[in-house]
Design a protein that fits this description.
It is an enzyme of class 3 (hydrolase). By secondary structure, the chain is mainly alpha-helical. 50% of the residues lie in helices and 0% in strands. The chain is globular, with a radius of gyration of 18 Å.
Length: 235
């Protein structure tokens, strides 16, 4: 996350804030402190890494549609480029608009969306996402009672949302504590640098290390991202 990597890396917009301060409108997980204590006791790398970032922690914007829309915008491009496109996209919306709403997106044509820097495919994906939310075919009110895999299955039915994007949603919106995004290049690079002296890391090795991080694999993953880019990265 926040590495600027492509092809599945966590390329989403960065929110820069004073360390230890929570931006207005963001929420943080209530399990974070316990997770940090657990991981520092059990993992020599995290024992050194976690204290470097003080009170900084995972934060959620609390809006499901915005989180998924930002994830689509950020696919396959750098953090900086994703933020630039997102900013231009937001300028297309009504000046007094609240957080991005599905009907606002559906009111924009594909051509208009492309004018903000979105590819034709991403513009179509955004409109399909908006249609799913507007028609109620995603079950937000049920998510709290659903398991991670069930939510992933529901989300990947939407065009433009694959497993990686759904896992980012689990971490950043629902703040599920035990998600290990095996296809995230930022996670793989963080593990390579912190645990294997920069040597290539296999999927099996990532999974094995993740098993040792349970039940707080999301938290450990977040610190792997932060080891590559110290600025907080949010959806």
């Amino acid at each position: 996350m926040g590495t600027g990597l492509k092809s599945g890396a966590s390329t989403v917009a960065a929110a820069v804030e004073t360390p230890g301060q929570e931006p207005a409108g963001f929420v943080t997980p209530d399990y974070w402190d316990e997770a940090c204590r657990h991981l520092t006791r059990r993992d020599r790398v995290l024992n050194k890494l976690i204290p470097r970032f003080g009170e900084a922690r995972l934060q959620s914007r609390g809006d499901a549609f915005t989180t998924l829309a930002r994830s689509i915008v950020g696919q396959q491009i750098s953090v900086k480029a994703a933020q630039s496109v997102w900013d231009r996209f937001v300028l297309l919306l009504p000046a007094a608009a609240p957080p991005v709403a599905p009907l606002q997106v559906l009111a924009l044509t594909t051509e208009t969306l492309r004018g903000a820097g979105l590819s034709a495919r991403k513009a179509e994906y955004l409109r399909d996402l908006a249609k799913h939310f507007a028609e109620g075919s995603v079950h937000e009110t049920d998510w709290s009672a659903m398991g991670d895999e069930a939510i992933i299955e529901e989300l990947v039915a939407i065009r433009g949302i694959g497993r990686w994007t759904a896992e980012m949603f689990l971490i950043f919106h629902l703040m599920r504590p035990n998600v290990l995004p095996l296809d995230d290049l930022g996670l793989v690079k963080g593990i390579s640098l912190n645990y294997f002296s920069g040597e290539p890391v296999s999927r099996a090795e990532v999974r094995e290390l993740g098993d040792a991080w349970a039940p707080y694999r999301s938290v450990a993953t977040w610190y792997m991202w932060r080891s590559l880019d110290p600025l907080p990265v949010e959806y």
